Amino acid sequence: MPIIQVIKDRLSETESFILENILINSIGRINVNSGPLCNCTDGGEGTSGRKYNPSEEHRRKLSEAAKVREAVKREKDFVVSEETKMKLSIASKRSWEIRKSERILRFIEEV
Fold it and tell me: Average pLDDT over the chain, rounded to whole?
């Protein structure tokens, strides 16, 4: 589970974008060999008010993925396709990225 630390609160959207940019630039990004962050940009250009509204097909796929995870957890005899193995691999890598972000937050605490 990621560790969340509030650095500043009650910021305007513009102030939040500026702080995001400062933090990303001070910590550094992997893709430009300047630090550990996986951000693709310097930040500060976020989307405002975006709402998540998945389609029926997407919800069905999420449901299927959850069922596979539950079956694997219960260690049932379950044949997993190569596609599903790849999806589980991607999910595992994302989990690693979350753990990496925890290390980044500990770094911020030290600064």
Answer: 83
Q: How far is CA 11 from CA 7, 19, 32, 108, in A?
A: 11, 9, 28, 19
104 CB-near residues (< 8 Å, 6+ apart): 27, 36, 37
Domains of the chain, residue spans: 7-47, 55-111
* Amino acid (one-letter) located at 74: R
What are 60-90's pLDDT values in tens digits?
A: 999 999 988 887 777 666 677 889 889 988 8
Q: State in Å, rounded, how far the first CA of the chain is from the last one.
A: 22
